[in-house]
Amino acid sequence: MPAPSSSEPASLADSAPALVAISHGTDSVPGRQLVGALVAAIRDRMPDTHGGFVDVLQPDVETVLRKLPPGRPAVVVPLLLSAGYHVRVDIGRAARKADRPVAVAGALGPDDGLARLLAARLAAAGLTDDDEVVLAAAGSSDQAAVVDCREQGRRLAALLDRPVAVGFLSAAQPTLRDAVETARATGRRVVVATYLLAPGYFERQVRAAGPDVMTAPLLDGGAVPPELVGAALARYAAARLPD
After folding, report:
1. Rounded CA gap, 84 and 63, in Å?
2. Considering the domain boundaries, does residue 50 fall inside one?
3. How many domains does the chain have?
């Protein structure tokens, strides 16, 4: 699958495959509502959009695909910020088992648009030239997901023209707490860019890591950021159905 650009397609053909937007799933009611708003915003641009979950909640990927009209091809767009186990294994398995052509698109990140969104959140939080910046990522035991998060950190650093450390909330090193402590050793204020899709357990873990300032998740209760919608549609447009 070719690497997607960060700009969304100008138009989508009426005959295009269905877009199946699959998020992780969360016990957080606000988190569920915000992810639902993201799916609705994608549907505004691509009417044949269907939401589902890869964990925690239903419907799962197989159920969503099964409910599509018979033979209708689909592109599964993971509403995840990195391409870890859920993308490669769980979603990939469901796509292979489907009774129709199904492509699995790339995860939302890394993406230049998401870097711009993170930078805007940092500016709104009052980032100064004297602050240390740490990107807080969920983390994964899948090295591909870790690489994706580090690449997102590099893109943010390039945009800000300053160093950005990356810390992980689970399964990868350094931990966010360690990254915050290392940054604080410089004697400067530590500002964490929260690289999470929505509020929930991991957001609370960001706060527990002790930053001086932290930004909200990418979905923060305001209008759905166009950068997220654009990333989802760009991944959809770049996907290729199997022969």
Report:
1. 21
2. yes
3. 2
pLDDT band (50, 70, 90) for residue 21: very high
Tens-place pLDDT, residues 146-171: 999 999 999 999 999 999 999 999 99
Q: Are residues 205 and 176 in the same domain?
A: yes
125 shares its domain with 190: yes
Q: DSSP assignment of the chain, as one string?
A: -PPPPSS--S---TTPPEEEEEE---S-HHHHHHHHHHHHHHHHHSSSEEEEESSSSSSBHHHHHHTSPTT--EEEEE--SS--HIIIIIIHHHHHHSSS-EEEPPPS-S-HHHHHHHHHHHHHTT--TT-EEEEEE---SSHHHHHHHHHHHHHHHHHHTS--EEEESSSSSSBHHHHHHHHHTTTS-EEEEEE-SSSSHHHHHHHHT--SEEPPPSS-SSSPPHHHHHHHHHHHHH-----
Q: What is the pTM of this model?
A: 0.91
What CA–CA distance (Å, rounded) separates 200 from 215? 14
Residues 63 and 75 in one domain: yes
Does residue 9 fall inside a structural domain? no
> Cα–Cα distance between 41 and 90 in angstroms, integer?
25
Residue 51 domain-assigned (yes or no)? yes
Vertex 140, ends 23 and 94: CA angle to 5°? 45
The residue segments making up the domain with residue 23 are: 18-109+223-238
